Structures are given as C-alpha cells and as structure tokens.
Amino acid sequence: MYNASDLRxxxxxxxxxxxxxxxxxxxxxxxxxxxxYRCKLKNMISGVIVDRTYRSVDTxxxxxxxxRKMQYLYNQGEEFFxxxxxxxxxxxxxxxxxxxxxxxxxxxxxxxxxxxDNRPIGITLPNFVDLKVVSADPWAKGxxxxxxxxxxxxxxxxxxxVPPFIEEGSKITVDTRTGEYATRVKE
Amino acid sequence: MLPGSKNNSSPGxxxxxxxxxxxxxxxxxxxxxxxxxxxxxxxxEVETPFLIPAPAPEAHIDAVRAGDAFLHTSPELCxxxxxxxxxxxxxxxxxxxxxxxxxxxxxxxFTLLEWYRLGANYFELMKECEDMVNFVSNHLGMxxxxxxxxxxxxxxxxxxxxxxxxxxxxxxxxxxxxALKRESFDRVxxxxxxxxxxxxxxxxxxxxxxxxxxxxxLNKKEPGFAERFELYAAGLELANAFSELxxxxxxxxxxxxxxxxxxxxxxxxxxxxxxFLKALSHMPEAAGIAFGVDRLVMLFADxxxxxxxxxxxxxxx
Lengths: 187, 317
Fold this sequence. Notes:
- The complex is a heterodimer.
- By secondary structure, chain A is mainly β.
- Helix content of chain A is 2%, strand content 53%.
- Chain A folds into three domains: 2-62, SH3 type barrels; 66-124, CATH 2.40.50.140; 128-184, CATH 2.40.50.140.
- Chain A has one helix spanning 95-98; strands at residues 2-3, 12-15, 18-28, 36-43, 49-55, 59-62, 66-76, 79-84, 90-94, 110-116, 119-124, 128-136, 150-154, 159-162, 171-175, 180-184.
- Chain A has a six-stranded antiparallel beta sheet with strand order 1-6-2-3-4-5, with no helix packed on it. In chain A, strands 9-8-7-10-11 form a five-stranded antiparallel beta sheet.
- In chain A, a hairpin with a 2-residue loop joins strand 10 (110-116) and strand 11 (119-124).
- Chain B has a single domain (13-269, 288-309), classed as BirA Bifunctional Protein, domain 2 (2-Layer Sandwich), CATH 3.30.930.10.
- Chain B contains ten helices and 13 strands.
- Chain B has helices at 13-19, 21-40, 76-84, 122-139, 164-171, 176-181, 185-193, 248-264, 274-280, 293-301; strands at residues 44-45, 51-52, 64-66, 69-71, 89-97, 109-118, 145-148, 151-154, 160-163, 203-209, 225-233, 236-243, 286-292.
- The longest helix of chain B is centred in the N-terminal third of the chain and has 20 residues, at 21-40.
- Chain A binds chain B through residues 5-10, 25-36, 38, 53, 56-57, 127-128, 144-148, 163, 173, 175, 177-178, 181-184, and chain B through 1-5, 7, 10-12, 15-16, 19-23, 26, 58-61, 100-106, 185-187, 189-191, 194, 212-214, 230, 237, 240, 265, 300-303.
C-alpha cells in the first residue's frame, strides 16, 4: 500500500485493476491550503494518459506486475527486442511501451521488464546509464546563472546539456529518472 | 536527483555540488540585498527560537516534532509577540520546517523572510513587496524586465491586483462560491488559476474567503472575506500576507476550529499557543508577510526546481 507522499515519477500503481505508471508528478500546496498530488498517469496496457489530483488521505495499491531482468538486444523500427538472460526467451515492446526509455537504451543494457498477465508491457531502466557523446557543439559562454553548459547529442540521439569540458567521443553517466547529466565516465 | 527518490547514492556527487556554485552565489546576493533593503527602511532584524512549545495550529501545516517541542513552521507567533511589546518594524530571515512537503517547489526545510509593521494594512504591504523585489533585482544587476521559464516578467510597479473572486470568474470553470461549496477551492486554485497568475506583471491575489485565513483580520465591510493576499510571479507563489487579526477571543476560536480539523483528519494536534493569545489582546493594528526566499532565488535563477537553489536537498544528505 502506498500513501500520497510515496507518489513520484516512475511509480506504478493500480487503478480499477489495471497497472498505471506515473509519467509526470507535481506536489502542490496553494498557500495555507491542503496538499495536492497532481499526477499524469499512463495506462500500461492501453497507453491512454489521464490526469489525476490526489489528496494526502488517499492510498494506492502497487500495480500487480511481475518484474524480470532482461537484456536489451536491438530495435527494428518501432519494435524493441529484449532477452531473458536465464532462459534466453526473447520478447518485444513497441515504442509506445518503451517511451522515454529509448533515449537511454544501449545494446546489452540490463533492464527490468514488467509483465502483466504474462504479457510484457513496460520497462524500468537502471537509475544511471553510461552513454557515448557523438556530437558536441563548441562551447559558447552563456548566461552564468544556470551554470555554464553546452548541448551535446548522445549515441541514442538524445540531446542534453553538459559541462563545457565534455568532448565528442567522451562517455558520460546520465540519470535516467531526470534525463540529466550526472558525471563524466573516467576511461 | 528526483524529488522523493529514495536512492541516496549517486555518481558525480562532488561535480553536482560544484555545479551549484552560480546559484548559491546568486542566493547569497539575494540574502544580502534583502537585509540591505529592510535595514535601510528602518526595520530591526530579529531572531526568534526555532524550537518552540506550540506551533500555530493550522489545518494544513504539519510541524516536525523535536523531543517534547516542535521546530517552528514559521516565526509568526514569536514575531507577533514582539510586535505586541512595541517593536514597530521587524524582519527575520530564517529556516522553517514543515513535514510532508516535498516537490519541485517545496522542501521540508526552507527559508522564509517575514516582516511585520505596526499601523499598516495588507495593501501597504503590497507596495512594500513591489519596492523590495525591484531593489533585489537592481542589486543583482537584472533591472526590471526578467524572464522566468520563458514567461515575460515586468517588475515595474504597480503590479496587478486581482481579488480571489475575480480570479475565479476570469480563469476558473466555476465561481468561488461554487468551489467552496464543493470543497474544491484548493484544487481549482492549483489547476486552473495559479498557472495564469503573475505574467507579465506579478499579481497580488487578495481577499480570501474567511474560511481560508486562520490568522487574518476579516474585512470590515465584507466580513465573508479576510484581508489576506498571496503574491504570484509567472505562476510561482512567492508570499502570503495579511492584516493581522488582533482579537484574542476570535483568534482562539479559529485555532480551536483548526485543531478540530486536524483531529478529524487524524493529524497531530498541537497545544494551544496560550502566551501568544495572551499577548494578542495588546496588539495594535498591524500587517505581516511571509516571503519564500528560496522561491525568490528560483525566480532570479530562472529554475523550475527548488533543489537547484539550496546546497543540499533532503535526498542529497
């Protein structure tokens, strides 16, 4: 059982017996008012997205899912292939089911695949993934308040801002929960 | 790190802390400017204890217990006791603690600026907010036109003044009276109204329903409303202010009501702040305001996340 204070992006809960994942979360508290937990939830089966606002008294059942460790193999268009490392069984997820995780999927990455009724429906990434920088613009000194940073593109096509000392060809660690740069990988 | 995340270990820890330097330098400058402003306007800086026996019993503000006492949720009660004793203009910048508040705009420990003025009402505090924020912006060398999360913000006074009732009529799918009846006032405020407030000019949202202001004076002409305002800039809530309630009897009744709400919801019920109530019967007309310092820094740093403007979030400890 979860309380409202457990709600956060990535948490999987059950609504009307179906599994939902929180894809966006905001804690709000209008001055002197009650705490409100605003969630954007994706139905992990149908892909339908709904907005819900919960109060601190609300409680939630965890989604009834089986999690299995699998390895990412490759993608073919909109299909992503994974393999169970124990029994070598292969499964596929479509791009909608993979969602934002595609930004951080590199070959051979170990991930968790969620099964509902023996059907694979979702993916959970490790919190940190190492990815290669394939293109980096030269650094233009910008506004110093948000910190000096520059945009780069990773091997997955994902773009993000990193410190100026990161060069093309370097490997960096990315926090998959926020999509933000964490550190440079020392080779 | 994501708010609410339970994972404490993280690579790049030192690098991330070092990366906060520009924001922390900005924060230090904001704090300096705030002190300069209030001292030059004749305010006395005070420090009241963090550890107190009885926080204000408000329905939706949860205090952190510390042994037999509590960490203060705001310095309000102690500062008002100083007001009652004849300190005409006081301010304080201090850490405050509130349980169960964590999100992009909330930290369980955060920094409040509070100031109180004898003989003033809430409309005079609006004027002071305009002066103070412009003073800070000039001190930072940022002038009167800034941007927050790609919204234009024009700090030049006067700012927008909108009553709560008008805001419902203009931005919400139902009237304020209807929202109160359906107990959806807070939800409509957060979902439909707040995002539309405070751009291009910051907005003072004023005259709250009497039920939504435990420590504010009721409007003499319209007793259904309390003389309270909230300040918004580009959708971001910055401050809460009111003409202070100075009727000790009435204050006690309201505290009883708030305590009853807490009891009904199964929340911790705090002792009645008796010494504050006793002092209140000596309080002349006054107004006071609580201004979120972290939020003000967020505004000037143009960041949507409060974690970026403090050295450590709770998950980074």
